Amino acid sequence: MVTAMFCSSSPPITSLLYPKAQKKPNSKRFSSLRASLPVSDNKLKVEYTPWLIVGLGNPGFKYYGTRHNIGFEMIDHIARATEISMNTIQSKALVGIGSVGEVPILLVKPQAYMNFSGESVGPLAAYYQIPLRHILMIYDDMGLPNGVLRLQPKGGHSQHNGLKNVTEHLNGCRGYPRLSIGIGNPPGNMDMKAFLLQKFSPLERKQIDAGLEQGVEGVKTLVEEGFSDSISRFNLGQKYKFHTV
Description:
- The chain is α/β, with parallel strands linked by helices and 245 residues long.
- Helices cover 31% and strands 20% of the residues.
- It has seven helices and ten strands.
- The strands form two sheets. It has a seven-stranded mixed β-sheet with strand order 5-6-7-4-8-10-9, with helices on both faces.
- α2 crosses α6 and α3 runs parallel beside α4.
């Protein structure tokens, strides 16, 4: 487990997720997230670094199902697969707390609109003491074919205003992981903004739904194994998913 922290005197995972000065909602839920090492020293414990998993989008029914809200959809899929309830409001965001295996995760849907997503991500990362390498951003990418996904340990903002704002609120640091979800390019001379706020065609919707299911497995693998060979194979499979021989 590449993201595990081995320690003999550090606080339990509940204090990592909820500083002592704050109330610890559902603290019993996290009591089982502390795993034992396969050694005879019972004082030595393993604690897993939490992940902050953020989907970018716009709040409100008006934007539901549009290309620019694919980050929100990915969070919803992960929440269902992990049985996490998105029932907490914090830092202008809808938040769900749970785990993937032994690893605690926080699922986040910022509610301050796309261009101000950092107003949620920055404070949440600071409050829960999440290291940059464990802040996964999920967003739409016009540079990828519709339904194709890509997991990267870091990168630029690709002219994505949501990512730009997040980076600004992370002190300009860009070294956070990202899952980009392809939505294709605007056809002909179609306005980019109109394209982003457009819903998918039936064929595109089918590709997106398949991609979201694959994305859930990719995120779960990332959380439990880090950027391993499994992620490399995931990216390779995505690259050629629509190619036939």
